[in-house]
Amino acid sequence: MISLTQFLIEEQRTHGAVNAELRLLIEVVARACKRISIAVGKGALGGVLGSAGTENVQGEAQKKLDVISNEILLEANAWGGHLAACASEEMEDPHPIPDAYPKGNYLLLFDPLDGSSNIDVNISVGTIFSVLRASDEHAEPEVADFLQPGTQQVAAGYCVYGPSTMLVLTTGHGVHAFTLDRELGSFMLTARNLAIPSDTAEFAINLSNRRHWEAPMRRYIDELLAGREGPRGKDFNMRWVASMVADVHRILTRGGIFIYPVDAKTRKQGGKLRLMYEANPMAFIVEQAGGAATTGRARILEVAPEKLHQRVPVFLGSKNEVATATRYHQDADAAS
Ligand code: P6P
Q: Is 46 a residue whose pLDDT tops 90?
């Protein structure tokens, strides 16, 4: 069993997709995730549960662990000379690298603790990150430098803080999973080339929003709920953790479709989930594992970003189900 470091050095040798600077970036993020895992794992013993009493840029109440996780990632990435800047769900604007340190060639975007509403009830949460190349147009990266389509990502990953802490990573050559060995303090490679089955009998959606959905969304889910007597001719199972990292990890492990559609409640914002540091990294990972990821109308990775905290609808997972759900939306648009 090899460590993350050995795996990255082998990737550097074989594919060249990972240079020394990107390898350092990934290792620094992994080390930050270890620290977040320790903080999350302390639960009530760490005095880190509950609300921070502040709101983030999304107007959402921040949990103490949201703020702590954000700080851990900022501090970890300040000194290495691998980043030009960071951007986070928890911060309005890009975060510059302190003048005391050299700047690097990459931009790091992250949701430091996704699903944090689950923390106080001890359900799995996670960190999601995306890596883009920095442009050399501006000495200090601006928002516009971050607004690259998901196809420009050079790496993406997440860390799921569950019964075990796992880092899942792609640099464009498959998806690989590492499990934290707490005695060694190292992420150890436990799965190479994760592959999402093309078909599934399991879907993940917040069904309580059904009355707010568009017609094609109701059509697609109602057909799944009709089971073997319905047009799909088979029964489906439903899972909804309300923690994207946990739901996506299950889909990477055994297949499924995850959907957070735009609906009457979220139409003004364009959806609930954020493009740059939730949808794009998860879409890169899912496509690299043989799955598909769309907005219900178009490939997520080809969405041209307009704002740093832009939201999009998300349909991702087993490619044949994503194709069916997407086709229903496209057919409805064509008929309207
Ligand atoms: P709902 C967590 O807040 C999150 O951003 C995702 O991790 C998760 O999939 C979704 O929102 C849960 O949304 O409507 O079930 O609370």
A: no
For 156-178, write each residue's pLDDT tens digit: 999 999 999 999 999 999 999 99
- Block residue for tokens 């043989």: 290
Looking at the structure, do residues 182 and 216 belong to the same domain, yes or no? no
DSSP 309: T
| Residue 49 CA, ligand 1 centroid: distance in Å | 18
- Taking the model in full, what pTM does it have? 0.97
What's the pLDDT score for residue 268?
A: 96
**How many angstroms separate the alpha carbon of residue 9 from the centre of ligand 1?**
35
Q: Which of 191, 225, 253 is the last residue of a domain?
A: 191
What confidence tens digit (pLDDT) does each residue in 195-206 have? 999 999 999 999
Domain enclosing residue 138, as ranges = 4-191
Determine the Cα–Cα distance for residues 326 and 320; give it in Å rounded to an integer: 10
Q: What is the CATH number of the domain that holds 234?
A: 3.40.190.80
How far away, in angstroms, is 116 Cα from ligand 1 center? 9
Q: How far is the CA of 92 from the centre of ligand 1 (A)?
A: 20
Q: What is the pLDDT of residues 288-304, one digit of tens each?
A: 999 999 999 999 999 99
Residue with CA at minimum distance from ligand 1 atom 10: 242
Parallel, antiparallel or unpaired: strands 165-170 and 273-274: unpaired
Q: Mean pLDDT throughout 311-332?
A: 98
Q: Which residues, other chains included, contact 136 with Cβ-Cβ below 8 Å and sequence gap of 6+?
A: none
CATH number of the domain at 108, please.
3.30.540.10
* 135 lies in the same domain as 261: no
Residue of 212, 243, 257, 263 to mutate, ligand 1, most atoms within 8 A of C-beta: 243
From atom 4 of ligand 1, which residue's Cα is the shortest distance away?
Answer: 115
Residue 287 resides in a domain = yes
Please report how many Cα atoms fall inside a 13 Å half-sphere around the Cα of residue 316, on the Cβ side.
30
**Atom 9 in ligand 1: residue holding the nearest Cα:** 244
